[in-house]
Structures are given as structure tokens and as C-alpha cells.
Amino acid sequence: IIPLRVLGCSPAEDGGDGEKSANIEAVLDSEAKAGEPLVIRATITNLNDKRTSFSVSANEFQSWASLDNISERIFDLDPGQSKEIIITLTVDEDATGPNTFVIETQTTEGTESREVLVNIEEKAKTGFNFGENTTLWIIGIVNVILIILIIIVAVKVSRR
User: Fold this and answer.
1) Cα–Cα distance between 28 and 121 in angstroms, integer?
2) Rounded distance, CA 43 to CA 111, Å?
């Protein structure tokens, strides 16, 4: 048994009546890698009982990415109708690990938002990747160079 103590609460962001004006679903359409574009496919569904104008934005990503494009920022939907929106972010070169951003829709009835979690893969290092055995690889490369030098010297001595 764990005691639960409620310290406070706040009214719903949708106007306080508990009813949502929109449903927001989001899925990644590309791999989340540092330094590369990230494509998110968001589906906005009108939950109102009348035709509604929606304004879509993306927020709270500035610390790990920059916004390239939102396919359609403003549109109208009939009741129950859905619209697919493509959001393209460019992930910063040094971004790694779990990061979040918010997809927000605004209507005359209120604001709805959905936080999206993105796990960014570290950017592949340029150059040679020797894995965990870097010292062994360096010793091996030095040995190959020494063998080539010995062969060159032996060929020169045998020609005299």
C-alpha cells in the first residue's frame, strides 16, 4: 500500500468542460538520428459536432532540433474527419537520447496538445571505427607497415 497525496490540480486546457476538441496521434516516419531530418506523421481528428478550423504548430523542440516544415498549418475539418500532417525537423548534430516536443492544435473551442517522445541515435563517427580493440588494431597496422618496409629494403639489397 502506497499513500497518495494530491497537492493540487488545475482545470483542463480544453476549456474546463472535460471534452476535447481534437485528437492528435503521431508516428515517426523516419529514423531519429543526430544531424539528419526527422519526419513525423501526425493525424488530427475533429471531435467537435460542427465544422472546425484548426491551426497546428510544433513546440518545445528548440533545444535539440530545428523546424523545417509543417505540411499544412491551417485547415478545416468536418465532425469526425481526420487530416494527416507531416512535420519535418532537422535534428542537431550533438543531440542524443530521449527528447520530446509538443504538437499543438488551436481552435475557437480551445487548445489540444500531444507530447511526442523521440529517442535520437548518436551520429556515426567519421573515420575508422576500430571498436573496443583500438590498441590491437594500431599494433596490427604498425606491423603491416614494418613488413612492407622490410620487403622493400630486402628487394633493394638483392638488386645490388
Assistant:
1) 14
2) 16
For 51, the 3-state DSSP assignment is: coil
CA neighbor of 36 nearest in space, from 104, 105, 122:
122
CA–CA distance, 27 with 118 (Å, rounded to integer): 10
Per-residue pLDDT of the chain (160 residues; tens, 9 = 90+): 566 555 545 444 444 455 788 899 998 888 888 888 999 999 999 998 999 999 999 999 999 999 999 999 999 999 999 999 999 999 998 888 899 999 999 988 889 999 998 888 876 665 666 666 778 888 999 999 999 999 999 998 988 7
CB atoms under 10 Å from CB of 50, counted, come to 8
- Cell representation of residue 49: 459536432
